[in-house]
């Protein structure tokens, strides 16, 4: 029945056109199956999977118990109805998902392919293709399996493929067949091909293939350049033939599509724990009641045996207690109803639709909306602490543009209009009819240099037009389309095209260029190709005059070492330009050339041919030959390419940082490029305390660098603590460290003097030299602005088992971490490391196939639908098109989802404990007989009808503050990170309130009705009256409670809350009616009870009294909490209310400062930072194919800088407690607090005493008070007594903000509530009470030394 699995392969042998031979190896067919079920297996397999959930198994167990008459006090339908409902909904969802998987599989498996069979082409479905078949591919077709390319219709048997589905890269790649099979171009010759391939077994390595072709008694080596992989698309190639090597699940595409890890949220894990606790609590209650039953049956029940005997098979009080225990387990199971899990899934589905429908996360440029690809992780979006981001295509647009250049010591590209006007874009059309109309450039000086015939400029662009591996396609005259291996290389060739040096076409031995309107054909003698070790590429060409020249472009650090000594002066000038370009975050490249004599060329060419034919160490031999010729070159200049940031990236990173989210960039780019982008997007700022560079090549060196970094952090913390103590002695004598450590300052590690009565510096207090590595607790107590940069080989050492703890403890203290030159596997390992060592939620965001492993490893994966294919999107949990949408996803949707889910769970557990515990108290008054308090229909409908919709409405629509305030006050995000809204403490508070409510709901009606009478004098103390009264009071109390818990009312909330109350009365009156009793006399036993009970005034008095006793303590507690310990959201709502009352209709301006952002200028140069070197390609180019005469196909025509956070708020205290709980304190000396720091134009930070709790609450806000984004008072002598209110964090450009005192119309500084409000808002924003510098904030680096200012003391 079951097919025997073949043994694991050590090598694969494939014989062409011989299915019988290949089938004995039991190779997989080309049919793929990603679905889980079929028609026969769906029901049993799906039920098996569902009952693996503990909750479903538990409810099935309860259902079985309810089918036993001796122990069941409830009808079986009270459990089976909700259980079947849940199982059915889940089954339908699973069936729908699997249907689409089947549909996708069938679509792929039924694609048509042309197979060579007996000398003719026959159409076969993909699923019927077998290993060893030869298939024909045509242009724009998908490759059906992993093929060995045998022949092609293109010259030299080349073919062109697009691999976006494999590696995310959209640029064209070239593959070539072996020369011995190139002549097999027709089905007849292919049918006689009987070659045998011996190769490696199936694996997931996309860039590697090793094998041999054995044919005609010869062996030919095979490499990845001979392979076409499944998932690729054939481009610009009419036809080709290939031999199937790997099929179906053995293909590299399927080998890389590993199963997605099942992700569960922290709330899910907590719920599982709480459910087990509740089950244990329920068992304890059952035991208590069972013991009570045993005692009662022995002491009291025995007196009734003569006329009320035990039911069979009960024959003693112990067996009666045993059955009573199981009866109470059934009755009390509603503390965790099955509707909980249904409601959670419905709420999550609603949150997912809100994300999909959010028009503010829709990108009109690419017509892409945000998509929630999972429904299980929404609330965890509100708990993220670490973001791991790719750089290229995620933070940047991955669209390269030629920005600046340096030619023979002259810099071009910087256009500054003294009048401030927008520079005019150059028009190349009149100068060059072949120019690219989309090319943008503004410096007319470079164009003039070309027009005037400057030889250096001509040679510069000639190099760019010749030294590359770009392919050109010209469908009609003048319409060129370039296909480049990297966007950088395409940008350089396009720049040369616009400046008059147009690359037109190439053949295996020539390159044709139109130079200033004149066509010139160069003989291509050799291509010295790029790789990641050489970091440069060269071409050797012969011009029509016969002169031979080598052109080279590459990383300046490597190329400058190979220049002739006469270039020293030019090197110095060009180095300055490169530093300037790197400071602007541009990707730089150096250009050089060398003239060769005929003798030099002949000698080198012979050595090159020998090395190329070598069978061993071929790459090393070629590298030595390349090194020999690339010497004594002459420098031409340098280029600077801009990879533009995506819109809103700096602002997004600034906002997320204020929300206490740490951002790590994991990129394959080199260190300098990544660091410069880090400064451009304001992840790194010049005001940081220190940026640590980890670049060791050995384990010991990396360990030492990490140790030194930790020591520096501790040293800063101790120095800061000392300054804090000095600041307490006198405000005027305070001094601070620079670099923004104290909150302002800025620079690159130096101390900047502060402004006071006397300008002075405080030296750091002497400490012990070389302190021991601090404990985690010590490091966690440090709150400085640190950053860490580590490269790939150092990271490899840091990820080793004995080093990972040191790396994590150091990196997690930093506000930003950049990992450079990392592999996709290292990205996943870094994420896994943080998950392992930190109890924090991680989010990974990327846009390419190299980010898939990271996205799958993180708690939450986000895919950017950008330039690098859709692999990242397919592997993600959420997707959108712009990085800037991440702040809305987290701060709005994530925070709301977390808030709603927490409020839902708190209320759900409360209402069910209030409902269920009444049975427990009733047990002591009914002889522990397992009699239920309520009608069985009420028990069934309580969680399905009466209380389900209101809590669903709250869980789906509730808000604490509007979305604008969520973005303006990032500190509101922190309760989710600290898991404050639903945890074990909150759970116990909820169930305590529920138990208290159950006590009131039972004993108040019991006490009143036991002595109450009707108007006729008849007693009210009967079971049915008590049941109706208690049930009515319960529904009213929980409805009032959810009305109090709801923070955002919609029409749906009103309808559900009051409609549920109305439905309760309607259904209860119907259930207790004479009509239903007459139809089902054995099912409805409460006939007439509701009608007779609800007309009694005493009953309504009882209901009102119980409601008041239940609700008034809750109201009192909440008012006291709001007054004594308000939450951040309470303060935000209050400030918003005050603002609405005091806002004037005139514009939001004051003091000449406009509220809002200022367009951000380009960053200035940062001296001392390394430039971004060579970044024009990331893989080996096409050089070998071009120079071997097997070249490309012939053309048809030939946030702003912000200060360190104030850590005196209560939420930061909780954060420190969290860290101390995670890491037991070992060294108290490390517990340091931020010290007050003063700089020019700044005020001392607000103290804790001026919080909302301690401020004067009797002083109203004065009319006319305006709030501005971080507008602070000027420095005054002595401690300030009045501070203006701070406004939300709009993250405007700091250039627009100046220190301004805000005064009321009366002329006095606003005080009273404003001071305390400012302190609370200071905690909300995480921004210190420090004035922004009026200059230098847009560009990192050391700030200007503040001018000395005297203040009268």
From TrEMBL:
Mg(2+) binds at residues 390, 392, 847, 851. This is Phospholipid-transporting ATPase. GO terms for cellular component: plasma membrane; trans-Golgi network. It is a multi-pass membrane protein. It comes from Oncorhynchus tshawytscha. It is an enzyme of class 7 (translocase). GO terms for molecular function: ATP binding; ATP hydrolysis activity; magnesium ion binding; phosphatidylcholine flippase activity. It catalyses: ATP + H2O + phospholipidSide 1 = ADP + phosphate + phospholipidSide 2. Its EC number is 7.6.2.1. Residues 1240-1256 have a biased composition (Low complexity). It comes from the Eukaryota.
């Amino acid at each position: 029945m079951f097919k025997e699995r073949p043994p694991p392969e050590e090598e694969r042998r494939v014989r062409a056109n011989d299915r019988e031979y290949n089938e004995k190896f039991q190779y997989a067919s080309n049919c793929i199956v990603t679905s889980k079920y079929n028609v026969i297996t769906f029901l049993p397999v799906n039920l098996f999977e569902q009952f693996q959930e503990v909750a479903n198994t538990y409810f099935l167990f309860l259902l079985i118990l309810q089918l036993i008459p001796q122990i069941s006090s409830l009808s079986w339908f009270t459990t089976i109805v909700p259980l079947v409902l849940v199982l059915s909904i889940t089954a339908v969802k699973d069936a729908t998902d699997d249907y689409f998987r089947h549909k996708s599989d069938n679509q792929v498996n039924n694609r048509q392919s042309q197979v060579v069979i007996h000398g003719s082409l026959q159409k076969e479905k993909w699923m019927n293709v077998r290993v060893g078949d030869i298939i024909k591919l045509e242009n724009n077709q998908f490759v059906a399996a992993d093929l060995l390319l045998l022949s092609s219709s293109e010259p030299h048997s080349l073919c062109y493929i697009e691999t976006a589905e494999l590696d995310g890269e959209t640029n064209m790649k070239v593959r070539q067949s072996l020369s011995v099979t190139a002549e097999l171009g027709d089905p007849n010759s292919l049918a006689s091909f009987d070659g045998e391939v011996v190769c490696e077994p199936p694996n997931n390595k996309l860039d590697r293939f090793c094998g041999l072709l054995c044919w005609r008694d010869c062996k030919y080596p095979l490499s990845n350049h001979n392979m076409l992989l499944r998932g690729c698309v054939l481009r610009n190639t009419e036809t080709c033939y290939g031999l199937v090597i790997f099929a179906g699940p053995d293909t590299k595409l399927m080998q890389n599509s590993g199963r997605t890890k099942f992700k569960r949220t922290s709330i899910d894990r907590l719920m599982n724990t709480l459910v087990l606790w509740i089950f244990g609590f329920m068992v304890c209650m059952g035991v208590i009641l069972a013991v009570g039953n045993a005692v009662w049956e022995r002491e009291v029940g025995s007196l009734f045996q003569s006329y009320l005997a035990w039911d069979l098979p009960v024959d003693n009080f112990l067996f009666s207690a045993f059955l009573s225990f199981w009866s109470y387990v059934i009755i009390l199971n509603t503390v965790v109803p099955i509707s909980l899990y249904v409601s959670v899934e419905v709420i999550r589905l609603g949150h997912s639709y809100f994300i999909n429908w959010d028009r503010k996360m829709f990108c009109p440029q690419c017509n892409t909306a945000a998509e929630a690809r999972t429904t299980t992780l929404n609330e965890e979006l509100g708990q993220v602490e670490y973001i791991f981001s790719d750089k290229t295509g995620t933070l940047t647009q991955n669209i390269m543009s030629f920005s600046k250049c340096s030619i023979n010591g002259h810099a071009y590209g910087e256009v500054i209009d003294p009048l401030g006007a927008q520079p005019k874009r150059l028009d190349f059309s009149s100068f060059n009819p072949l120019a690219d109309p989309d090319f943008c450039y503004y410096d007319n000086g470079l164009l003039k240099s070309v027009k005037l015939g400057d030889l250096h400029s001509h040679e510069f662009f000639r190099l760019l037009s010749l030294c590359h591996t770009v392919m050109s396609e010209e469908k009609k005259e003048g319409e060129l389309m370039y296909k480049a291996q990297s966007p950088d290389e395409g940008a350089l060739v396009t720049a040369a095209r616009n400046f008059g040096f147009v690359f037109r076409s190439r053949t295996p031995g020539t390159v044709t260029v139109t130079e200033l309107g004149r066509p010139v054909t160069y003989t291509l003698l050799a291509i010295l190709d790029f790789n990641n070790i050489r970091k440069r590429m060269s071409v050797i060409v012969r011009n029509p005059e016969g002169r031979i020249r080598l052109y080279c472009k590459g990383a300046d650090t490597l190329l400058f070492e190979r220049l002739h000594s006469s270039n020293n002066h030019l090197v110095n000038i060009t180095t300055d330009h490169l530093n300037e370009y790197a400071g602007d975050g541009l990707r730089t490249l150096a250009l050089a050339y060398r003239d060769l004599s005929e003798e030099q060329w002949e000698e080198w060419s012979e050595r090159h041919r020998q090395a190329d034919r070598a069978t061993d160490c071929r790459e090393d031999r070629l590298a030595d030959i390349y090194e020999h010729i690339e010497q004594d070159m002459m420098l031409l200049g340098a280029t600077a390419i801009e990879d533009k940031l995506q819109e809103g990236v700096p602002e997004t990173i600034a906002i997320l940082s204020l929300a206490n989210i740490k951002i790590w960039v994991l990129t394959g780019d080199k260190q300098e490029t990544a660091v410069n982008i880090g400064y451009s997007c304001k992840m790194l700022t010049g005001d940081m305390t220190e940026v640590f560079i980890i670049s060791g090549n050995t384990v010991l060196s990396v360990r030492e660098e990490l140790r030194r970094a930790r020591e520096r952090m501790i040293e800063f913390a101790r120095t800061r603590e000392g300054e804090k103590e000095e600041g307490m002695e006198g405000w005027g004598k305070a001094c601070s460290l620079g670099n923004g450590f104290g909150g302002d300052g800025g620079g690159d590690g130096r101390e900047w003097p502060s402004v006071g009565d006397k300008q002075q510096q405080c030296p750091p207090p002497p400490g012990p030299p070389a302190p021991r590595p601090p404990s985690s607790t010590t490091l966690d107590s440090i709150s400085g602005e640190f950053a860490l940069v580590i490269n790939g080989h150092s990271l490899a050492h840091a990820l080793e088992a004995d080093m990972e703890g040191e790396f994590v403890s150091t990196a997690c203290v930093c506000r930003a971490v950049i990992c450079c030159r990392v592999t996709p596997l290292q990205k996943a390992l870094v994420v896994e490391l943080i998950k392992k060592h930190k109890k924090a939620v991680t989010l990974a965001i990327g846009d390419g196939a190299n980010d898939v492993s990271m996205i799958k490893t993180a708690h939450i994966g986000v895919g950017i639908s950008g330039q690098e294919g859709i692999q990242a999107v397919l592997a993600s949990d959420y997707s959108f098109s712009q990085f800037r949408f991440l702040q809305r996803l987290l701060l709005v949707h994530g925070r709301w989802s977390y808030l709603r889910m927490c409020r839902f769970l708190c209320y759900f557990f409360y209402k069910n404990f209030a409902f269920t515990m009444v049975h427990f108290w009733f047990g002591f008054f009914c002889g522990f007989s397992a009699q239920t308090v309520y009608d069985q229909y009420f028990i069934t409908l309580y969680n399905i009808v009466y209380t389900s919709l209101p809590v669903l409405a709250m869980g789906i629509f509730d808000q604490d503050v509007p979305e604008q305030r969520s973005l303006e006050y990032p500190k509101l995000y922190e309760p989710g990170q600290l898991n404050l809204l639903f945890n074990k403490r909150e759970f116990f508070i909820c169930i305590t309130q529920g138990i208290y409510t159950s006590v009131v709901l039972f004993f108040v009606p019991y006490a009143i009705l036991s002595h109450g009478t009707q108007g006729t004098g008849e007693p009210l103390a009967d079971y049915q009256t008590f049941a109706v009264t208690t049930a009515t009071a319960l529904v009213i109390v929980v409805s009032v409670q959810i009305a109090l818990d709801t923070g955002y009312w919609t029409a749906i909330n009103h309808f559900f809350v009051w409609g549920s109350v109305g439905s309760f009365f309607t259904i209860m009156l119907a259930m207790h009616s004479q009509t239903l009793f007459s139809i089902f006399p054995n099912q409805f036993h409460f006939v007439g009870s509701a009608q007779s009970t609800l007309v009694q005034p005493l009953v309504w008095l009882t209901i009102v009294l119980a409601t008041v006793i239940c609700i008034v303590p809750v109201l009192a507690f909440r008012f006291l909490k709001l007054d004594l310990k308000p939450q951040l959201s309470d303060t935000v709502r209050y400030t918003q209310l005050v603002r609405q009352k005091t806002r004037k209709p005139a514009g939001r301006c004051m003091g000449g400062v406009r509220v809002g952002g200022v367009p951000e200028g380009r960053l200035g140069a940062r001296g001392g930072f390394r430039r971004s070197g060579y970044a024009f390609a990331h893989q080996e180019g096409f050089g070998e194919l071009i120079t071997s005469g097997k070249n490309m196909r012939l053309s048809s025509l030939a946030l702003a800088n912000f200060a360190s956070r104030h850590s005196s708020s209560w939420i930061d205290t909780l954060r420190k407690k969290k860290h101390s709980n995670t890491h037991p304190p070992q060294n108290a000396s490390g517990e340091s607090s931020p010290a007050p720091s003063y700089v020019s134009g700044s005020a001392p930070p607000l103290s804790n005493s001026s919080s909302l709790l301690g401020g004067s609450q009797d002083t109203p806000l004065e009319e006319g008070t305006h709030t501005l984004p971080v507008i602070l008072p000027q420095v005054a002598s002595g401690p300030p007594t009045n501070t203006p209110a701070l406004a939300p964090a709009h993250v405007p450009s700091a250039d627009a903000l100046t220190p301004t005192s805000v005064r009321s119309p009366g002329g006095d500084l606003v005080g009273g509530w404003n001071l305390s409000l400012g302190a609370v808002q200071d905690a909300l924003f995480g921004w210190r009470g420090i004035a922004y510098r009026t200059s230098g904030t847009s560009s990192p680096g050391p700030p200007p030394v503040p001018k000395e200012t005297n203040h009268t003391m």
